[in-house]
Design a protein that fits this description.
The protein is of the alpha/beta class. The protein has helices at 39-43, 115-121, 128-133, 156-163, 174-194, 196-199, 204-218, 230-241, 257-261, 273-277, 279-295, 309-325, 333-343, 350-362, 387-397, 406-418, 420-428, 468-477, 500-512; strands spanning 58-59, 67-74, 84-92, 102-107, 134-139, 223-228, 246-252, 455-462, 481-489, 521-522.
Length: 530
Amino acid sequence: MSAPGPTAGRRIRAALLTAALACSALLTGTGPGLGTGSAAARSTPPSPSATVPRLDWSPCKPGSPWECATAKVPLDHAAPAGRTIDLAVVRRKATDPGRRIGTLFVNPGGPGGPGTVQVPQNYDAFPKELRERFDIVSWDPRGIGNSTAVNCFDTTAQAKTWAARPPGGFPVGAQERKAWIDAYEDLGRLCEKRDPDLLRHVSTADTARDLDLLRRSVGDPKLNYLGVSYGTILGATYANLFPGSVRAMALDSNIAPRAWIDGGPQTDPRSTTLLRMGSDRTAAATLDRFLTLCGSAPAARCAFSAGSPEATREKFDALMQRLRERPIGPWTYAKTVADTVSSLYIVDPGWMALAGRLQELSQGRAPAPAVYPPPPPVDRPNPYLGDEQAAAVWCGDSPNPRDPAAYHRLEEDSARRAGDAGRYWTWAAEPCATWPGRAAAGYDGPWNRPTARPVLVIGTRYDPSTPYTGAQAMARELADARLLTNDGYGHTALFNNGSSCVSAYESRYFVDGTLPPPGTVCRPDRIPFS
């Protein structure tokens, strides 16, 4: 799962091959030609030290406030004299240089989120004091976007042809399940042939080591870091690989570390990353909250309202059943479920727009295509972001069932407890069933190495992707962390769902290290549809 940006519409099928996890992925076995990292390799940082990359900053575009640079880092941190790869990096300088504290590194989520696009796109969401006092820096992690990227196709036409094969949203019925499984199995074979060495070195631990090199490149003695969604597991990995280098770290919308690793590389997972996390349950709870608040409002405030919460839930269920039987143009049942879950990420304007689309569908009309914001002022705002990029990170790091046939059973189990959202989140992980291998040097713990400074953990109660329980688990598992509760809605408190209370505590923490009092609960500035 990741921060919003102009690429979001192209990635609806990649639930965490979107986000999204907001999250990412899985494997237990070894595919042909790719080795499995040993337990020691997955828990111990490499001993050789890489050369600190030089960042030659220049305007990303003429007149742009953003500066761009390229960092060269080792493909394999255990062999720093070998092949190097490029990391695309962006920076916006502190707006009050006389009071500048340092650099704030930001990972906007994913895996697969291009920081060089999404952070500039969402710059105005950062609290004013952070923009004033920190250079805001982000990067496309290795394997992603404008950095040395995983790309399993020779041409754009080939990529488009493949992208048309998997059913939209998730598969419904035996024929679509076969088409989905076959498409992702073919994708894995294509990727294995293109650059198997890169596939083995795009782990979260590899990126954490890149982040430490970037910290040293900008001259900061310790790291200031904000990670959202998948960026939380990246932050937790960094905090345990480099515990003495943490000045301030805020983790927003958290993945529970034990849900990510599922006991380590030797386990035979019976569930997926996202189901272990509880993404299905939290999406169902958030959807129920959306329908409750919508049904409590008049139609002038929520277009899909049926006059009461109960009637609005019944209206939604009836719409899903009709779409199963008769799609409306391109709007199938599965596409509508996927659109609903992903639209719950951003409260304003996402929830209002979702209500409008559902109302259009309920009246038998196909909604108009989504309108996305203009690209940010960077030189490459639309990099290739194929499903294989998220899969390479997710499937190399986090164990998932290796038998494609298991996913239909998991889907039905999840649907019994979480309804339509369970189907969506179950199939998001299936590409990892046939992914060709695990990371050469990942990280499976421990997660409780004492850090130089405490970590701030932020969790939202109604999050459609990363449940509040993930934040509670992260706060427990880290050696020294404080939980800040956002009693609100949507995925991530910072980028998507305004709470001046959260912003104030986050700003103060980054500026002077002050943590919120234990048990602090913040609320959104505005209730949806109020």
